Sequence to fold (209 residues):
Amino acid sequence: MPHVTVVDHPLVQHKLTLLRDKSRSTAGFRRLIKEVTLLLGYEVTRDLPLTTRRIETPLAEMEAPALKGKKLVFASVLRAGEGMIEGLIELVPSARIAHIGLYRHPQTLEPVQYYFKAPDDIADRPVIVVDPMLATGNSVAHAIDLLKAKGATQLRLLCLLAAPEGIAALDRRHPDVPIVTAAIDSHLNDHGYIVPGLGDAGDRMFGTK
Ligand code: URA
Fold:
């Protein structure tokens, strides 16, 4: 079973309610996605390894904590992952960004890759896969397949909302990848949308509907 953390912080839950509300404007939706992502980003980076570094404050020398190893990678599952990347870059300005473009094949409904770019040394870096909606889990699981094939080993998934079906799918395919989410909703409808959910995250953040 993948380890699932639900960030039930009052600010996260309040902002999630504002996001779910169908009357939210595109500008408001974008701003809220960024705000919630900043708060979730705090949780998803909680156990990054630390080392110490010798520095001098104006008063004394000290061994001060600093992130250990290479900079982390945010892996954005296009296109909705992009809305969360802005908040994450604010939190970790030196992070590397990977992009994974997938679409659903109209006949087989299986994810098909149209774009993939990630740092060559991804094996040495912690990787946070970013996709706001863990629905069927097919595209995220496929994105993780591609990242693992490139060498990534230290992976975790950051989403806004997860469906039980998506969590189960990820459990089957990638039980080693922990999940951080703001909520686990009831179920998927016949079209693969999370219920009650927040609708199509990409359309709402890019104003394409
Ligand atoms: N993708 C979305 O944007 N919304 C859902 O509810 C499911 C998948």
